[in-house]
Design goal:
about 210 residues, alpha/beta, Leucine-rich repeat, LRR (right-handed beta-alpha superhelix), seven-stranded mixed beta sheet, five-stranded parallel beta sheet, about 10% helix, globular
């Protein structure tokens, strides 16, 4: 974030002291550093997760009975990942006291698997109703995927840059192919467009062979 150097002097009437250009620039530099720190902290919080079960990271959904598969910056997903229909985990209700909690896994969040190049396959359960934008973007090792009919919404750029993806089975419940959904999927050979689809947005199949 750039800062401006103000090329004039300010005079303090109460003490008769002049504040020079150098002091103004230093104050602005300090403010820039502070803002950068705050943005970094906000970024870390944006990708925080609520809990982890069997190597998959989740956030709570609209309530604590639903869970969403979420992003983990370490991209720990390797090989074939099986997303469960539900997860059970312990919640600390007070110091040293835990209760078991079960959530239905209802969505795959934005960027959930983004950049996980060692991911080769994902099994998506019928409990999933929504897949967020860029959820599998740049998963260059992903080879094939089946999206169950329970899914009614798939976000923009979901499979963008999945260069090893050869086969996709889409949910029969979706009504559109989102912007850039399969862009740069250069190995894509087979895909069936569901009957309910009425809109294919720009760049949905950009650079596909």
């Amino acid at each position: 974030m750039p800062f401006c150097i103000i090329n004039f002097q300010l005079t303090s009437r109460s003490k008769g002291k002049q504040v020079g250009t150098k002091q103004i620039a230093m104050k602005q530099l300090n403010m820039t550093i502070l803002l950068t720190l705050l943005m970094s902290i906000a970024g870390m919080e944006a990708w925080a997760y609520d809990f982890e079960v069997d190597g998959i990271y989740y956030n709570f959904g609209s309530n604590e009975t639903e869970a969403e598969v979420t992003y983990n910056e370490e991209c720990v997903y390797v090989g074939n990942v099986v997303i469960p229909e539900s997860v059970t985990f312990d919640v600390e209700v007070e110091d040293g006291v835990f209760e078991s909690n079960t959530c239905s896994v209802t969505s795959i969040g934005e960027n959930a698997f983004n950049g996980c190049s060692s991911l080769t396959g994902v099994i998506i359960p019928s409990s999933i109703t929504e897949i967020g934008g860029s959820a599998f973007q740049n998963c260059s090792g992903l080879e094939r995927i089946i999206i169950p009919n329970s899914v009614t919404s798939i976000g923009d750029y979901t499979f963008y840059g999945c260069t090893s993806l050869t086969s996709v089975t889409l949910s029969n419940s979706i009504t559109s192919i989102a912007w850039g959904m399969f862009g740069n999927c250069t190995s894509l050979k087979s895909i069936t467009i569901p009957n309910l689809v009425t809109t294919i947005w720009d760049e949905a199949f950009d650079n596909c062979i």
